[in-house]
Write a structure and sequence with these properties.
Belongs to the DNA photolyase family. It is an enzyme of class 4 (lyase). Residues 103-131, 580-651 are annotated as: Disordered. This protein is α/β, with parallel strands linked by helices and 651 residues long. Among the domains are: 263-346, Alpha Horseshoe (Serine Threonine Protein Phosphatase 5, Tetratricopeptide repeat), CATH 1.25.40; 355-621, Orthogonal Bundle (DNA Cyclobutane Dipyrimidine Photolyase, subunit A, domain 3). It is built from 27 helices and eight strands. Strands 1, 2, 3, 4, 5, 6, 7 and 8 form an eight-stranded mixed beta sheet that branches. It binds flavin-adenine dinucleotide. Flavin-adenine dinucleotide binds next to helix 10, helix 12, helix 15 and helix 17.
Length: 651
């Protein structure tokens, strides 16, 4: 059937008339059938909903519904992410074709009883790079592709006698409302199964959580028993295709360097990363190195072309023990940890997790600052490169994501959710469970003892001293001698004249005074810190925060920081900040004077002065909280000198 023109299509497809009962589908009056409703987890192996459907029914119908709510002005995804999703759906459809079942059925919408067709044998090149156009569907379709309101469509299937099974995903906003509506509409015919390693079946999800996550990562994968069970796959050919959807919504990606959303590319990336995993710790921090130094698996994990567990087990099986392997598998663990937070509290996308910080910066909202940040025109080259890289390529390494988020919340002092939504729109890998929880954490909205304010000038010197990455994304600075890239506004006029880069003209001056803003942030934060710690004593707030150490971790913060503002304020300050803000040398007491903090401060002091002669400002350039508290989770977790490889229980 040709692509369906969806431009003016109000209807939800397939129509009720196109949906046979399971009995009709296979010509067996006793047949039971399951629709496998696919949202993320777009794979065949280690997919519990599919495994369950194969085990329980005589006939299964894997279904993906293109939901108009995610498109056009209503949607929150850039076209490149939509394209990635469409490629993934088409890839899954082709993958179904390779399954070793004896028969599958498909029928065109409106046609009479289903056609029985032989399924092709498993394709020998199933793991090779795609040679076909990535949105092309298999000749013998595997998925039923619907369009419209998924709840209406599922109800139609239920009315025709189908059960529906789907993998639970941590959701919020529209996704949560959709799932709630689906529950109400389908009742007991709809089952959400939890096959993603998260805990959902008890009140205190974090009790014994780390052990649970570890066991899940190491447990056998869910494998559909195609061979053992006599199950038939059924497909309705609706004429809905990714190409038709793209045409209807004018999906036309402009981003560059975006990975292709196919299972074969995911497998290739995983294999190639395993081969170079030993170099991973050295290649995480610099944005230039990270582009090819980290795994690049995040979009595949987000859409579930591969499961966290599949990646974990592949790495454990095929990579020799090394620090790289350890750091990497810890990050897979973090994926689960942050997603658990969203599963525990769907409000992460909309409200500050700690009520003490609710509404923070709303009164400071300045659209011109937001716009400068989004467009990469803040006058801070590392921030500008990050923001342009995000918009133009849809990916940033952890450090740049954290730095640009910190800059937005702490230095520009703009409402955090505007920045988080911007990331969500532009990241190809945007995972609601990670993005919004990380944003709140980076924006200091949780109330944990240690916080970090990144210094984008220091990041230039540490991560891109030659300006290779900055000038790739901010080409108007290419002619500027690299020693001025941390503070272009201090480039002597004669140098500007000579190199033809005119600060304030071809590149903006800083839109804010960094030091003044940072001090103002810490003062305000200090005033709220104890109250924020005390708020964590409230069970509902502790539950929302969802620390890996559970309620005990929240109580420990309250005990330590809830009643002594002076002590608390010491915690977030580095030595250099203390010197700068209080004009006095701090007493060597408490967490702020750990050996780590001293080492860092000395390291900073020993840096050579720049040609601009701004030696004194170096002292205040230390990333203030990177070494804040020995127990703080927000130490520089991406830094290779940091030995912390496990989640801290306060995180
Ligand atoms: C403000 C902010 C927003 C973020 N938003 C997202 C997001 O929407 N989606 C996303 O996948 N990651 C997000 N991250 C985490 C991290 O930056 C990315 O996972 C990583 O850069 C993806 O590249 P990779 O797959 O090559 O990473 P690798 O270093 O190869 O890591 C492998 C996988 O581990 C997980 N992981 C790595 N770091 C983290 C982390 N700090 N927290 C949780 N999981 C982690 C991811 O699933 C990642 O794909 C965010 C970080 C910050 C600071």
């Amino acid at each position: 059937m040709a692509d369906r023109d969806l431009a003016d299509e109000e209807a939800t497809l397939p129509l009720e008339a196109d949906i046979p009962s399971p009995a009709e589908a296979v010509g067996d009056p006793d047949a039971t059938g399951h629709v496998v409703w696919l949202r993320s987890h777009l794979r065949i192996d280690d997919q519990l909903a599919l495994t369950r459907a194969v085990a329980d029914g005589d006939v299964i119908c894997p279904l993906f519904v293109f939901d108009p709510s995610f498109y056009g002005d209503r949607g929150l995804a850039c076209d490149a992410r939509l394209r990635f999703l469409h490629e993934a759906v088409a890839s899954l459809d082709r993958l179904y074709e390779t399954l070793p079942t004896e028969t599958s059925l498909h029928r065109a919408a409106g046609s009479e009883p289903p056609l029985r067709e032989a399924v092709r044998p498993e394709s020998p090149d199933a793991t090779e790079p795609p040679t076909v156009e990535t949105l092309a569907l298999a000749e013998s379709p595997g998925l039923t592709l619907g369009y419209g309101d998924p709840v209406s469509l599922l109800s139609r299937f239920v009315e025709r006698g189908w059960a529906v099974v789907t993998m639970a995903t941590p959701t919020s906003r529209y996704g949560k409302r959709r799932d709630d509506r689906a529950r109400a509409a389908c009742g007991s015919a709809l089952e959400f199964v939890s096959g993603d390693g998260l805990v959902r079946d008890r009140e205190r999800t974090r009790t014994g959580w780390a052990d649970h996550a570890q066991s899940w990562l190491e447990a056998p994968q869910h494998t559909p028993a195609w061979d053992a069970l006599d199950v038939t796959r059924f497909t309705i050919e609706t004429g809905v295709t990714p190409t038709a959807v793209e045409a209807a919504f004018d999906v036309s990606p402009t981003k560059t360097e975006v990975p292709t959303g196919t299972h074969r590319v995911a497998a290739r990336r995983l294999r190639s990363f395993i081969d170079r995993i030993e170099s991973y710790p050295r290649r995480i921090s610099s944005p230039q190195d990270a582009r090819h130094g980290t795994s690049g698996l995040s979009p595949y994990l987000t859409f579930g072309l591969v499961s966290v567990r599949q990646v974990y087990q592949a790495v454990k099986t095929h990579a020799s023990p090394s620090r790289g392997r350890e750091l990497f598998t810890d990050r897979l663990f973090w994926n689960l940890h942050y997603n658990q937070k969203l599963a525990d509290w769907p409000g992460w996308t909309e409200r500050a997790v700690n009520p003490v910080f609710e509404g923070i910066n709303e009164d400071r909202h300045d659209p011109s600052l937001v716009d400068a940040w989004k467009r990469g025109r803040t006058g801070f080259p590392m921030v500008d490169a990050a923001m342009r890289c995000l918009r133009e390529s849809g990916w940033l390494n952890f450090r740049m994501r954290a730095m640009a988020a910190s800059f937005f919340a702490h230095i520009l002092q703009q409402p955090w959710w505007i920045g988080a939504d911007w990331y969500h729109r532009h990241l190809i890998d945007s995972d609601v469970g990670i993005n919004y929880t990380q944003w709140q954490s980076q924006a200091s909205l949780v109330g944990t003892p240690a916080q970090r304010v990144y210094n984008p000038r220091k990041q230039v010197r540490d991560q891109d001293p030659d300006g290779e990455w900055i000038t790739e994304w901010v080409p108007e600075l290419a002619a500027l001698p690299s020693q001025f890239l941390d503070r272009p506004e201090r480039t002597p006029l004669a140098v500007q004249q000579e190199c033809g880069v005119h600060i304030g003209d071809s590149y903006p001056r800083p839109v804010v005074d960094f030091e003044a803003r940072r001090s103002a942030f810490w003062s305000r934060y200090d005033r709220r810190r104890a109250a924020a710690a005390r708020a964590l004593a409230r069970p509902e707030v502790a539950r929302r925060a969802s620390f890996s150490g559970g309620y005990d971790a929240a109580k420990a913060i309250v005990r330590k920081y809830g009643s002594d503002p002076k002590h608390a304020s010491d915690v977030q300050l580095s030595l250099s900040d203390a010197i700068e803000q209080r004009g006095t040398s701090p007493e060597p007491s408490g967490e702020s004077t750990t050996a780590e903090a001293q080492t860092e401060t000395e390291r900073d002091r020993s840096e050579p002065p720049t040609d601009t002669g701004q030696r004194s400002s170096r002292h205040s350039d230390t990333d203030s909280a990177s070494h804040a508290a020995a127990d703080g989770p927000q130490r520089d977790e991406e830094d290779e000198r940091d030995e912390q490889t496990r989640l801290h229980r306060f995180e």
